[in-house]
## 1
Amino acid sequence: MAMSAASPPLGLHTRRTGCILGTAGHIDHGKSSLVQALTGTNPDRLPEEQARGMTIELGFAQLSLSRDDGAACPMSVGIVDVPGHERFVRTMVAGATGIDLAMLVVAADDGVMPQTREHVEILDLLGIVRGVIAITKADLVREDRIEIVREQIAKLVSGLPLAEWPVVVVSARSGRGLDAIRRTIAELAGELPDRSAGDVFRLAIDRVFAVHGRGTVVTGSVLCGQATTQSTLELLPARVTCRVRELQSHGTAATRVGGGQRAALNLTGIDREPIERGMELATPGYLTPTRYVDARVRLLRRGERSFRSHQRVRVCMGTCETLAMLVVIGAREIEPGGDALVQLRFADPVVCAHGQRFILRNETAQVTLGGGAVIRPVSQRLRRAQPDVAASLERSESADAQVRLEEALRVAGFESATPAGLACAASCMIGEVSPMLNALRDRGVLVRVTPACEVHRDAMAALENRAMAMLSRHHAANPAQPGLLRDRFVTWLEKRSGAGIGRAVAARLEQTGRIVARGPYVADRAFQGAASAEDAARLERIVEEITAAGFDPPVWSSLRALTGVSRPRNRALEELARCDARLVLMAPQQFIAASVLARFEKAVRELGAGGRRFTLAQVRDALGLSRRVVQPVLEHLDRARVTRRVGDERVLVEGEQ
């Protein structure tokens, strides 16, 4: 399945009054000069950059477009100027994060150069499909040279979305083409789809600094959603909550910023020290830090060697760059130009969302290998040959948010999932999660285990099947035992589902008839046990003795004289007795015959019919028994919720309902 471009959660749309444009191109091809000619701002912001005449860090400027420029309405374009030097490709990728448009700059005197090619590849891998190509420094060459460069560009972008981009010839020095490129940017901005207001805010941080008297300030491109002064946000992956004190957008104070805008946020409740470029600010609970991310990647065609699984790569995602091991799913390598499902195992926790694009570079960050799109933003360590992984990931790639949400629930199993976390996994609005969950309930996809726990039916089936397999292994290893102690069975289930859930799952297995209760044990209903012939004969004698004793059965320890067995063997016989339907454990070490107990209960029900209250003495007289014999049996019925004591009297529990 082909990768799809990252997109923010869909939602309510706001009229677009701004967008972000990122530059691209080889070093010294005039990107910064063109930005200054268009905006009046020199984006080279560091003294070192000014001295060297090149952008090292991201530079920023604002272009105001009016109707005179062809804009449908006044619009502010935030320009992110990126470095063209090969050593700063990671910064170029950071600058491309969140941009709506790109401006590829090619100098007329140099033509297409190595970083031109690499930046074109990166723009394609990041899914940036709208932009303009500027042939700069037109004042330095003849027109025939410009035509040669046009041909070079056409060859370079052939077969890519960039082939449809308009080409404008400009000169920052003479002013040639500046009006034309402003109109082109205005036209492209007017064609952009409206940014979603949504209910999820994300900002990729590219600068952090402190302002005296104000505190910590971060800047970045708003990827989606909106933030206002007083908004509470989460700094990730640090998982620190902070609040917005002040906002600026495109150089002016604002009360609200949204998708498609450059923004500066003055934060309170947090120090500068834990913040650095590469982090994100987001709606609390939406993004989850993880070291495992599943994705689909595509390698560039250049090079003859395949990329082998389990190699280390540098991943440029958002404004961060970090090391990861790339594990190919279902294969050992990826051919040049090929694509594959992979798992990225990061050295440090990262945050991302479904559909988010990234760039892969080799470990030394000298060569761009390819790029990809996130499928599962929070995963667990996968085995390369793990069955059904590829099919599951392909379902998570679906264009249908309902399918993506269902797969997220299937994969989550019994792990708790919040609406915000599910929205991230399914790339939808948080407010869309509840209706989609209702649709899954209507289809019977979700199983309610407890009032506070719902899981995908496949997750429930998988746990139940694992539990039955475990029981089968226990029966095979312990054929003389009547089953597995219920408490141990519940503990096993809770380790794989959660506190308070295991008992409910055990009850469900019992209700559906897959397991049966045998006293304190549970067993596969098909398991009959393998008691020895000697023990079976001893148990028969015990049942006969207890039945003959009627309402005054002997204590278990006294039965050793009947069976003549050792204490350990007698304990084993007691376990068998607990599972025999002919006997009922009335009190510790004391069984009563089930048939005898049934006669006692019948008499009690006759006394309590119609809601009448009765006393121990009445039961004693009705059965002709002594108080010593009647009292323990009545107390057993109290514990079994057949009767309930009210002072010196009793009443049938079912008679109260």
## 2
Amino acid sequence: MTLPNSLTFLRIILTPVFLFLFISESVFYKQISLAVFIVAALTDWYDGWVARRWGYVSRIGIFLDPLADKILSSAALIAFAQLELIDVWMVWIIVIRDIVITLLRSIAEYKDQPVVTSSTAKTKTFAQYVVIYYILVLYVIRTIPFINRDYPNLFLVVDNLLHPQVLFGMMLLITILTVWTGVSYIYTNRKFITALYEKSNRPNG
């Protein structure tokens, strides 16, 4: 197994670890979850760099790498919803869109038929990770006991930054971008998607 693929599998393995730690009641576990998420996210950057630098490109890597990224980001959003930081309906829209589009992209890349990805979709992905880090870091800070005890003003600032209306507005923007880029992606690549559908429904023999 190549190094990039090993890092991809590591990212997949770290995802449930992050999820367990973050939604636990232990403040220490929540702090560790932040480190786990950062390490998992860094494997995405590093495995991509290694693959490009040394040419370690494989079929399984092409398929799994983007899927592993979406599994990680989806796990974070699900964890936030579990803790009632964000609305569940937004999370499901984002998760379903991301998994479906990523699977289509992975299948296309696997078949050597790369599909078109718009700059808006890249902006959406960047904005989504900004929001994830925003919520994750501030939430972990807010759970640290001495912040509330020794730095009440800082705690108040963090608490205001995590106000439900603030998070709702941020997530609403991400959800709108998610729907827009999903519809745009399907329309732009409709010929490939139609051909894939027809092939899957073609009787054998």
## 3
Amino acid sequence: MFSSLGLFNNVPCPDSSCHRPNCVFSHQNQAGPSRSSSSKRPAISPVETNEVGRATKRKSDSTLIPSEIKKAKQVFSTIHSPQTVVETPHEPISPIKSATSTQSLKLSGGVISHGKPLITKHPSSVPILPTDTDQAPKLPLFRRTPQPYADRQKGLQTLFAQFNKLYAETLPQSPKLAQESALAQEEEVSSTSTNLAAYKRSIHHAAVSISRRPIPTTIPHPSIGTIKVSREAYEQAEKASTSRLTRERIIKYCLSHEEMIKWNYPNSTDMSLTSDENLEPSAEGTEKICDRCKMSFVVDGKNLKERFGECKYHHGRTAPQRVEGRRKWIYSCCGRERGEAGCEEGLHVFSEKEDDGKLAKRVPFKTVKQVLESMPRKGEVETQGWVDVVGMDCEMISTTAGISLARVTIIDENGLTLLDELVRQTVTVLDLNSRFSGIKPGELDEAVMDLPAVRSACCAFIGPETIIVGHGLENDLRALRLLHDKIIDTAIVFPHDKGHPFRRALRDIVKEKLGVFIQDRTADLGHSSAVDAKATLDLLKWQVRDDHSS
């Protein structure tokens, strides 16, 4: 226990039969358990408290009266109550300060009254930004660091002075920019410095680096921000500069006429494909070979629901696998061996993509120049100009006319979508091929433009000298019925190890070169033509950067 302060050593004990071993009251002049009520005793000097909290002791020779005994008992009970602190009577009682910031204790009539706890606010956890933007901000106090607060505040002032000088032309646009950058930079330096010496060196190096930056004139600018942010911004700017798809950089990747014939592109010089005579828009009533199950059937656009299930096929491809010691060709869709019954059901479909003459009988091909000449406002379109480089991707479906265009997407070098349009079908749709096209039932009902109208819309951005970038563009050009000779095919820019006629899948090239996953195989959501078109442009930019670095 704590030692007694002896405040009541001169006060007689109010308990006539006190047996406490360490009583705080005086037991002198007590003859025995029985005492005369008329015996003289030293008077209890009541304690008074003045207005400023100074306790004074009043001397008195008056005899002890019952009321004073009662007060003494109250003092006794107060002394033994929890959390009571008493000053010596010979010194003034001063306010007692603690972690909870309690108020001063006062003595009133011999009884100690407890003050109510005061609520103390925690140190600020956010930096203080002065209203005067020419002053450095104040650091928050909530985090412990290996560096003293005073040194950190001094380092902050050094950084603020450099940022304030650097942002001289941009501060009118953002007055607190220098304060915010200084706080972020100081926090970055403090968190990476293990001691005060390392902190001071880092502050000095940071201040020198900031002073050497080019002065920004606009917001945003690569010179704005911390050293890390500014460095990343300049790296991105350098990357964008070296990745710019100028005609001089990419013209060497355009396919020559001989290469287009080699890779089975439609012949852009064959004007017979543009003839609109003897057209047969649909193949209904003719016999075809199913492109899925390889069975012969007659094309018919009627009773589709009743006929559903006439074709049993595998949508996956076969690949050799070693099974029970034998080499077998296994379908990727269901794991069955080649030659087994199909795992899916549908309608018979056909394709004429290998015969440009038959495709021209469905819908004639057109060159870009012919499309522009057929447009009613040719002059207005020409004066607007065309994009130098575009990325294009098309999605196809199966109809009674074979493989038909369902959607076309064109984007520019910066990834901005110039055109994304669904195609209204003029023949019966047999299968939407949603697993690959991404077209869901009912979406084509909202289409407005037919194939010739969509082709004209494409030529609002594609001119005779525009370079079209894509992956396997021969199929897209056939579906669009467009003849063009400025083509870059990423399947040829990044060739297969085995050479012609093998081609690598777009998703594999993108994964290898860009580290990005597209055309997710785990979900049958179909391809996104916008994603595929952008991916081909990004691959070409990667190739241009690689050429620049080598």
